[in-house]
Amino acid sequence: MHVKDHIIASIIFSAFLFPIFKWYTIIIFLSAVLIDGDHYLWYIIVKKRWSLKKAYYHRRDGNFHDLLDIAHTIEFWILILILAIFSKFFFLVLVGITFHFILDFVYVRFIDQTKSDFRTFSIITWIYRRKSKKNYPYTNG
After folding, report:
1. What confidence score (pLDDT) does residue 55 get?
2. How far is CA 41 from CA 12, 76, 86, 113, 134, in A?
3. pLDDT top residue among 50 and 11
4. Is 116 helix (H, G, I), strand (E, B) or coil?
5. For residues 122 and 70, is the Cβ–Cβ distance under 8 A?
6. What are 21-54's pLDDT values in tens digits?
7. Which pTM value belongs to this model?
8. Which of 26, 33, 95, 132 has the fewest CB atoms within 10 Å, i.e. is most exposed?
9. Crossing angle of helices 88-106/3-21, nearest 10°?
10. Which positions ≥6 away from 83 have C-beta within 8 Å?
């Protein structure tokens, strides 16, 4: 899903939640949008470039394979879930990222199905695939 769409949907979602969480909805909004910062981090690590604009278009053109978007993994979810049990801040972050993932799921499942197999959902499986890349056709080499 495009950043613009995440921003618009997250503004609407935050406005809907404002009567419940008041100004804390800012945390929900920011976590729902900024979680995609891991896409930019991946671009920096793989391409060794800092251009945010090129990173965005690189992602949109489908020039990627076997992505490890660290904030989109089950391990990250577990960490945030554990922290959310003990902290209101992380509970609000969990609400925001959950909304983000719902949007991503709907987008990949119903709108752009070509993006469905490029991202790993676990750091452990990503490491395993990288170690046995001869058996996994999507690695960059």
Report:
1. 63
2. 27, 15, 28, 24, 26
3. 11
4. coil
5. no
6. 999 999 999 999 999 887 777 777 777 777 766 6
7. 0.78
8. 132
9. 140
10. 90, 93
Proportion of the chain in helix, strand, coil states, percent, rounded to 5: 75, 0, 25
Higher pLDDT, 17 or 121: 17
What mean pLDDT is predicted for residues 49-66?
59
| Cα-only R_g, the chain | 16
Nearest CA-CA partner of 77 in 103, 65, 95: 95
Tally Cβ neighbours within 10 Å of residue 95. Answer: 21
Q: Taking CA 62 as the corner, what is the angle to CA 59 and CA 67, rounded to the nearest 5 degrees? A: 65
For residue 48, the SS3 value is coil
Q: What would the two tokens of residue 132 be? A: 């046995």
Measured in residues, the chain has a length of 141
DSSP class of residue 118 equals S
CA distances 132 to 7, 63, 137, 138, 139, Å, are: 38, 22, 10, 11, 10
Q: What six digits make up the tokens of 117? A: 């197999």
Q: Which residue's entry shows tokens 């996994």?
A: 136
Residue 77 CA to residue 130 CA, distance in Å, equals 22
Q: Tell me the domain boundaries of the chain.
A: 3-135
